[in-house]
Fold these 4 entries.
Entry 1:
Amino acid sequence: MKGRVLVFLQFLFMFLLTLPIGNETNTLVFGLLVLSVGGVVGVLALYANRIGNFNIRPDIKEECKLITHGIYKYIRHPMYLSVILLGLGMVVLYPYPVQMLFFGLLVIVLVIKMFYEESLWRCHLDEYEDYMKQTKRLIPFVF
């Protein structure tokens, strides 16, 4: 149930970030660059995850396997990073207070979801602790 609520909130704030608020942007190129990087990170995560582990909810599938190659070699949550970058790109394009609020709420939901998912992985797979020591959560070599 917790996983479903987190996913609902994630998609709600993602949707709210895409609403056409305002009509001018002085940061079109930078905003599109951030959106593009977010898209590339998402595609790399999906490509590395092509064995069928992908689950939109943070719940662990019965027959899941830990992915430690591709982008997962450097960060544990590339899909969350992708969503954060896509949201940030929208804020850069439309830097209005309400957009910043939606983005902040989205980040909070993703962080809660990330920690919840990690707690499930630790219970499910002993080798996850070692994986956590070798990788960072969202930013390679930093966090």
Entry 2:
Amino acid sequence: MSALTFRNKLGNLVDIQSVPATRLKNEFGTIFEQAVRNGAIAITKHDTARAILISVEEFEALVGERSNSLDKLSGQFEGLLARMQVPAAKKGIAAAFKASPKTVGRAAVKAARK
């Protein structure tokens, strides 16, 4: 089985220890504490990782990173939208929708040649 890695809450790339599902079933408390201490444990079945048990701290870090990414994308979208609201952009969009297919084709060829 290939080693699994993940970027932990500190930003370090770390290997994830794997544990067979049978051992998890028989030693849940011990495995649980390892996940809390180490950040994550891979649960395997037939030598294939099937699930990851992660600590609350690692989960919150992952969710927080996703929220930051969405916030960043939302900010970029708002910036693009604001730039599209200026008179020159509105005029350009109106002209593009009024243009004939032949005119649009010429513009596309001209842009492709640049």
Entry 3:
Amino acid sequence: MNWVPVENHEGNRVPVLSPRPGFFDSWLVEAGPPPVFTEDGIVVLYNAGNSQQVGVKNLGNRVYTGGQALFDAKEPWKLLDRVVHPFIQPELPFEKSGQYPEGTTFLEGLVHFQGKWLLYYGTADSMVGVVSAPAK
């Protein structure tokens, strides 16, 4: 698959996923692992940063979590759905140390292996973690 940036009529790039005030991804959204094509569309796992000022008060400031978004397979710039809450966030001690004391779960790699999805993520700029889920 060759990806081409979406541009407006003036040739400027157009964001397809942006931070949202009031949510866990209020400070930043950033690409995670490569997208996955499914029968429902294109699933994008992304890194999200929270701002306590305009985001989720009890999540922590500049904490990195993981989000999921679904885009249309035929019109990949069209956002179909997006999670309201992070599906992964810092909880363990090694995820809450390092550069960001509030914690980091920074999504890096996604692998389908032996009937499971393995998601590799950075933890507070000091370690790499992996979580798994059965493939459906």
Entry 4:
Amino acid sequence: MTVSCKYCNKVAEHFVPNLGAALCGEHFLAYFYKRVKRVLERAGRGRRILVGVSGGKDSISALYALSALREEFNLEIGAVHIDLGFPGVEDCYEIFERACIRTEVKQHVISLKEEYGFTIPDLAEKVRTLCQACGIVRRYLLNKLAWEEKYDFVATGHNLDDMVYFAFNNLITHNISFLNTLDSVLPPIPRLKLVGRIRPLFWLNDVDSLTYLKVIGAEYCPKKCPYHKETKQIFLKPLFDDVQKKWPQSKVNLITSLRKLVRLSSIMDRREENMRLCSRCGYPTRLEVCSFCRLREMAEK
């Protein structure tokens, strides 16, 4: 049986979990961009944004969406691909390169091996989890490049499903202070050489990125990290999906409620608490030596 779009009589081809309904291509794009605009309105117009692009569906979607809204928000956009030394991901770089050409944005490429002398796989026997080390390195390199190139914000492909998992995981592990970053936009802190953070896909589901790329006819790299192991995400995300199938607004309502609770608490005031500049590299840290410099020293040993 043919299903009609929620907003018109056209054939509905794209199911939207947040709505619990299907949309035609035209109304899906309107839905997608409306939620990205909601984030951009908070960041402000006339901003310089550096998009971290791995080549995966979410980061590629963020790049295309920001590029589509570039004139409306008077944005200057750059994109960076970080080569962390994982084998077999050359296709992802090629997709990043083609996406930059199509969107006409400035390209940046960082090679961890060439610039710092080590790769993430080099740390395999030296750290508890490679995922944590990878996150530290990515955040450091994105912020450092953005600061040096005078970007206002770093944009990442984190979406609503990521935020729900992030929030729940921090609650069950009692890391409540981390909830102060549960937001679509985090302002810059210039005194700490910390650029702002923006998550254009904050109010969009995982599947929305796939639908968006299909509608605009764009490619992405489907390859997973070769060192990926089972994490709590594999068990928790399907549970959240089951809840959303019954109550479509559940994920949006959960994040909205938690953000309101954070703002009513003292957690919001702790983002800069105990932060300083690393004694070695001069970038933000809560310790004398930042996590990136300690990983680098570990790799050298």
